[in-house]
Amino acid sequence: MFSKKTVRDIDVAGKRVFVRVDFNVPLTESGAVADDTRIRAALPTIRYLMDHGAKVILASHLGRPEGKPDDRFRLEPVRRSLEKLLGRNVHKMDVVVGPEVTERVERMVPGEVLLLENVRFEPGEKTNDPAFAKELAALADIYVDDAFGAAHRAHASTEGVAHLLPAVAGLLLAREVETLSSMISDAQHPFVAILGGSKVSDKFGVIDRMIDVVDRLVVGGGMCFTFLVAMGLDVGKSLMEADQVDHAREMLAKAKARGVDLLLPVDFIVADAIAEDVETKVVGREEIPPTQMGLDIGPTTIELFKGAIADARTIFWNGPMGVFELAPFESGTREVAVAIARNTRAVSVVGGGDSDAALKKFDLEERMTFVSTGGGASMKLLEGGALPGVDALMDKEG
Hints:
Elements: E1 16-20, H1 37-51, E2 55-59, H2 76-86, E3 90-92, H3 99-106, E4 113-115, H4 123-126, H5 130-137, E5 142-145, H6 156-160, E6 167-169, H7 171-185, E7 191-195, H8 204-213, E8 216-219, H9 224-230, H10 245-258, E9 261-263, E10 267-271, E11 281-284, E12 293-297, H11 299-310, E13 314-318, H12 331-342, E14 347-350, H13 354-361, E15 370-371, H14 375-382, H15 388-391
Parallel strand pairs: 1-2, 1-5, 2-4, 3-4, 5-6, 7-8, 7-13, 8-9, 13-14, 14-15
Antiparallel strand pairs: 10-11, 10-12
């Protein structure tokens, strides 16, 4: 049960509503939106506010402009995409705050949508500067946070302004938090978590939490090699974090003590370079050549992981099994994704980021129960960490 108030719990008619969305989308070389998933995800909240007579002021970041204007990260491509999706005119400002923004907001009519420029053009955004938060708050009567992907950041537009206005959640943020939280608290068993990606240091918090709640923990991707070194194996030139070996050893011991089946790859596709046309071979995990690196899980591991997924009733997946962007190393990630999709009896939750990119590549996104829009935020929530953008919102009464 989501404990914070949402847009449905507050009167927005005729009000100026500042909505923090997450339109941090990839752009093509020509400057168009390459993937509008995050824009589409915000549409229910935007349409709800429009339909209920709010004056909708949208704010988002895009890229990493380092606190100053950068033409590469202007939101005009986002405006065009949003306008097409809404079927309504969307006006965009060339700045975030200032007299021209204030004057334009004053002229807004109920149901209108105004998009501010990239909030990270302002140095006060990432530092959560109180003066900048106050300028943002002065534009509106109500604050709505629908940017789950940025909810783990205590920035001016995600946390600071929420303390200055009546602050509620958007429909997307509420669904994200409720889905991920209930997956942990009310999971059907067997519960299988599949973790991959490159750096294990980024995911130890989630690994630790998952060992407490899952029946099986499947670990692939570059992060698995730190675990193999902790088991005494040589991994050649594979990606490995030497300073995390002891931590990996602790997680192996914890999983064993709790009776959690922690599955690691037993074979790999190896090569001496990350390239499309490189020569590859399959080797057992004890046989990785000293001059080569593991870049995908091997065929025996694929079958092992598919077996672990087949009878699950709850599945959480975050992180690819290999360098899936390149054809020689895509099979592990693809086959794991297909196995999840085929288990139609399970609730399948995907933690965003590279996992979502893989689902898109293999056209499997629609076959998952839920795909999060926030990789970092979903990891923070699952490991039990604070989400400043959520904590600052008004609690539901009772």
